[in-house]
């Protein structure tokens, strides 16, 4: 008899839970229908924000790459400029 009581309680609690869940879903659906413009506006804003974030990230990456390229190019130019000057000074001594 005790086992039968447990299963009945479990079944009853499960049914009550499912009822609450369905009512909540219906309430949420009613809210979504009442304000479709707000939902569409939110959906439209999200991709725009993502696209803007991607653009700014790309610009920042390009700036960093340009700075790195400039830094790498400067030492090479300086080394080229310094080596002929040293050779000339050594030629003068001989």
Give the SSE map.
Elements: H1 2-34, H2 36-93
Polypeptide structure, described:
It contains two helices and no strands. With 94 residues, the chain is mainly alpha-helical. The chain is elongated, with a radius of gyration of 36 Å. Helices cover 97% and strands 0% of the residues.
Number of strands: 0
* Largest beta-sheet details: none
Looking at the structure, what is the overall shape?
elongated
Q: Which spans have pLDDT < 50 for at least 5 consecutive residues?
A: none
Helicity range of the residues?
A: over 70%
**SSE class:** mainly alpha
Radius of gyration: 36 Å
For the terminal residues, how far apart are their CA atoms?
A: 117 Å
Average pLDDT rating? 76
Q: What features would you highlight for this structure?
A:
94 residues; mainly alpha
């Amino acid at each position: 008899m005790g086992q039968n009581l447990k299963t009945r309680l479990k079944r009853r609690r499960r049914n009550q839970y499912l009822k609450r869940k369905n009512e909540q879903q219906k309430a949420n659906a009613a809210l979504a229908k009442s304000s479709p413009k707000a939902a569409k506006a939110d959906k439209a804003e999200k991709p725009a924000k993502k696209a803007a974030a991607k653009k700014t990230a790309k610009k920042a990456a390009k700036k960093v790459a340009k700075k790195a390229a400039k830094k790498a190019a400067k030492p090479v130019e300086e080394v080229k400029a310094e080596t002929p000057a040293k050779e000339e000074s050594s030629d003068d001594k001989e």
